[in-house]
Design a protein that fits this description.
Helix content is 58%, strand content 0%. By secondary structure, the protein is mostly helical.
């Protein structure tokens, strides 16, 4: 069996590559997706905002959840069941990876784009112009002379 990183069974680390690349590049991508969703709303953009981060988030989530033995509830001194030892690690991962790296930048891009559009509309209304900019009309095709 070919060896990588000095051990023959370390090939599974490559499966985490999307999760590793998501940390530096994911926030910028989610910022752009949030801005895109706010600028031109539609189902396609919303689905893209959900499906694009799904692969790196799930690949990072799998090592956090498995093995399932980590989720057994320990018996406390008084005989009651305590929280799983792995629970706080999982909640921290969920807060940072899903909330901070994925959802936070999307929400920031969405909110800033909505705020910018709102401010522009207010400025146009004060100046007496239309609240929304007129859509550019398609240029009429020129009639060619025979």
């Amino acid at each position: 069996m070919p060896m990588m990183f000095g051990y023959s069974d370390d090939w599974w680390v490559l499966l985490l590559l999307p999760a590793v690349l998501w940390v530096p590049f994911g926030p910028f991508l989610m910022l752009a997706l949030g801005s895109s969703c706010a600028g031109k709303p539609g189902r396609g953009r919303r689905w893209a905002s959900v499906l694009i981060p799904l692969v790196p988030v799930v690949t990072a989530l799998v090592p956090m959840v498995f093995p399932l033995e980590k989720w057994e509830r320990p018996v406390m001194m008084d005989g009651s069941l305590g929280p799983p030892e792995h629970l706080y690690d999982f909640l921290g991962f969920f807060a940072v990876y899903v909330g901070g790296i994925t959802f936070g930048p999307w929400l920031l891009g969405y909110a800033v784009t909505h705020l910018a559009r709102f401010v522009r509309a207010r400025i146009r209304a004060r100046r007496g112009g239309p609240a929304e900019p007129p859509e550019a009309a398609p240029a009429a095709p020129e009639a060619s002379a025979p």
